[in-house]
């Protein structure tokens, strides 16, 4: 078995290892607004639920190597304390990928990707109408794992409102086949969540 010391390798090489091994990763399509109300939407595959009391979720932008290290999403969350996680189904996978383009802050990624902004109930950022579920969130904490390019930023938010497409939910259980979520592997490879199997949890 190959043994690798991260300190001996380039950040880009370690990134390739991590994104190849930590799979599949769910995709959060995160919508935010800046203090002037200009909307932004972008995908993040370092994304996970944290706990249910209170309901919390995290996603992780990475500091860039050029220009402003902070992505628009991170800067907007820092300034406004709000964001929306939009769940990515197969039907909006291509549009979600389009929002990953590096564009200037004044560019409307909703328009760029052909997505429809939908007013939220609690927070200012709009939801993505085409997404099957939305999590309106208020910022709880931001943790920087470092200050150099490639460092992760853990953004933790409390979910203050769930929105779920009606035919997906039954007694708070979500039908995974109807949700039809997609995930990320390494590089340009994505994955469907249709090859399901059950394992009964031991008592």
Features:
Pnp Oxidase, Chain A; alpha+beta; 5 helices; three-stranded antiparallel beta sheet; globular; single chain; 203 residues; 17% helix
Q: How can the largest sheet be summarized? A: 7 strands, antiparallel
Name the shape in a single word: globular
How many discrete domains?
1
List low-confidence stretches: none
Question: What is the CATH class designation?
Answer: Mainly Beta
Proportion of residues in extended strands: 25-35%
What is the CATH architecture assignment? Answer: Roll
- Straight-line distance between termini: 34 Å
As laid out across the biggest beta sheet, the strand order is 3-2-6-9-10-5-4
Cα Rg? 17 Å
List SSEs in N-to-C order. HEEEEEHEHHEEEEEEHEE
Descriptive overview:
There is one protein chain. The protein has 203 residues and is of the alpha+beta class. The protein has a single domain, classed as Pnp Oxidase, Chain A (Roll), CATH 2.30.110. 17% of the residues lie in helices and 34% in strands. The protein contains 5 helices and 14 strands. The chain has helices at residues 11-21, 72-80, 93-98, 109-113, 176-179, and strands spanning 25-26, 28-33, 39-44, 47-52, 55-59, 82-87, 117-118, 127-128, 133-144, 153-164, 169-170, 173-174, 182-184, 190-192. The strands form 4 sheets. It has a 7-stranded antiparallel β-sheet with strand order 3-2-6-9-10-5-4, covered by helices on one side. It has a 3-stranded antiparallel β-sheet with strand order 1-13-14, with no helix packed on it. The chain has a two-stranded antiparallel sheet with strand order 7-8. A hairpin with an 8-residue loop joins strand 7 and strand 8 (127-128). It is globular, with a radius of gyration of 17 Å. The chain starts with 10 loop residues before the first helix and ends in an 11-residue tail after the last strand.
